[in-house]
Amino acid sequence: MIEKIVVIGSGVMGRGIAYVSAIGGYMTTLIDINEKQLNHARIEIESLFDKAVTKTKLTTMGMEKARNRLLYSNFLAQNIDDAQLIIEAVPEVIETKKNIFQIIEQHAPTDCVFATNTSTMSPTEIGSFTKRPDKVIAMHFFNPVHKMPLVEIIRGLETSQETVEIVKKVAENMGKETVLVNEFPGFVTSRISALVGNEAFYMLQEGVATAEDIDKAIKLGLNYPMGPFELGDLVGLDTRLNNLKYLHEKLGEKFRPAPLLEQYVKAGRLGRKTGRGVYDYSK
């Protein structure tokens, strides 16, 4: 039975996962070597607690209990010696993930389950960085984590059924619905989302319509809750570009990133987190 969860990476996804983990009843430690980002995550999580109480999604007592279950740290090795589930939520760079998994392999208990919050990368490859590939799996959460109801669970080549059942139960306790996917680049949701978002950039580049009208057409015509540019700015255009590069390498030409997307990233227009992406948030 899982009682203690460690989340590595306090960016948008990591802080959201830590929040729903604490709400779900788990002793949770959020770890990031970047102290400034970790402090920012703490402020954001406190805001989520306050909003949940205001909207009566949590009682004041429930908030206090969840808050007391949540710890923050800049130190990795010292905080995982009794972890039962570690969820990695660092940027989508395979070398970064490799370094993380090699460290946690050395310091985590032998029965600890390792999950990666990747949206495209191979849990089989990530499992090969450890001596326990049967205990490695992908748990793909969606942004914003506290609102989005789905966790995509991706089984690697050697992932055991026991590991699948453990993370499925954890996700459900966090209030999520789950789907089980056999590993293939991009899984289900990322392949579709990457195609739609990339095609939107090609249309913007070609002058088919304005960004606002493309988003409006997709929302009202196809019943999407967000337009592709709104979503791209939310998750980060650098993240979207990294995903497309990976899918282009693995699945071919239909995932070649639009040149305009690459230009935006080179210009530092990454979305909401930098104040400007497709849209301007500085005001």
From TrEMBL:
InterPro entries assigned: 3-OHacyl-CoA_DH (IPR022694), 3-OHacyl-CoA_DH_NAD-bd (IPR006176), 3HC_DH_C (IPR006108), 6-PGluconate_DH-like_C_sf (IPR008927), 6PGD_dom2 (IPR013328), NAD(P)-bd_dom_sf (IPR036291)
Pfam families xref list: 3HCDH, 3HCDH_N
Keywords recorded for this protein, A-Z: NAD, Oxidoreductase
Domain of life the protein comes from: Bacteria
Any one of the GO BP annotations: fatty acid metabolic process
Listed pathway(s): Lipid metabolism; butanoate metabolism
Residues involved in NAD(+) binding: G9, S10, G11, V12, M13, G14, D32, E92, K97, S119, N143, K273
Residues of the 3-hydroxyacyl-CoA dehydrogenase NAD binding domain: 4-183
SUPFAM superfamilies hit by this protein: 6-phosphogluconate dehydrogenase C-terminal domain-like, NAD(P)-binding Rossmann-fold domains
Site feature location: Important for catalytic activity: H140
GO molecular function, one term: oxidoreductase activity, acting on the CH-OH group of donors, NAD or NADP as acceptor
Domain 3-hydroxyacyl-CoA dehydrogenase C-terminal: 186-281
PANTHER family registered for this protein in UniProt: 3-HYDROXYACYL-COA DEHYDROGENASE FAMILY PROTEIN (PTHR48075), 3-HYDROXYBUTYRYL-COA DEHYDROGENASE (PTHR48075:SF5)
Family recorded in the similarity comment: Belongs to the 3-hydroxyacyl-CoA dehydrogenase family.
Xref: NCBIfam families: PRK09260.1
Record-given protein name: 3-hydroxyacyl-CoA dehydrogenase
Organism: Fredinandcohnia quinoae
